[in-house]
Amino acid sequence: MDILVNNAGIQHVASIEEFPDERWDAVIAINLSANFHAIKAALPLMRRRGWGRIINISSAHGLVASAQKVAYVAAKHGVLGLTKVVALETATTPITCNAICPGWVLTPLVQKQIDDLARSEKLAPEEAKRRLLAEKQPSGEFATPEQIGELALFLCSDAAAQIRGAALSIDGAWTAQ
Asked: Annotated catalytic residue: which of 60, 61, 72, 132?
């Protein structure tokens, strides 16, 4: 059984004019190019074994954009394109490729954004968290790593054998708006 989950990610926030070239290169390398290289390495093994599941962790930002996040949004949109190409190239095999698109998940990356918002607006941490969620995620709740893991497990099951090239949102209705 071969399963590949591409789940690396970094972020940098700045306007396009102020976005450092080296940060662009780093975000694209880690958030998009690393997925390509991992898939390229894993796919021949999956083909030899006659089965595989590839799950790319994209983002709500793979489906919609936000200001100040040019590299992250571009990379996560790219992950969805990569997912679709792999799904097409493996469509006649028992190998599937799909993407999970989480909204806000309380990770160290998101905690930094909460801390930055609390500091810049002089807010209590709980108020900064509430504001961050209210801005994008109508449910007002973070998606959890456990929920994302359960979705990944489902995508690895036989029940998901014909789910191919899909971008599955787990975003508290963020992209439903």
From this structure: 72
- In a 3-state reduction of DSSP, which class is residue 3? strand
82 and 89 Cβ atoms separated by less than 8 Å:
no
Known active-site residue 77: no
CB-based contacts of 143: which residues, under 8 Å, 6+ apart?
102, 103, 104, 105, 170, 171, 172
55: closest CA among 160, 128, 126, 135?
Answer: 160
User: How far is Cα 87 from Cα 93, in angstroms, rounded to an integer?
Assistant: 10
* 25-79 per-position pLDDT tens digit: 999 999 999 999 999 999 999 999 999 999 999 999 999 999 999 999 999 999 9
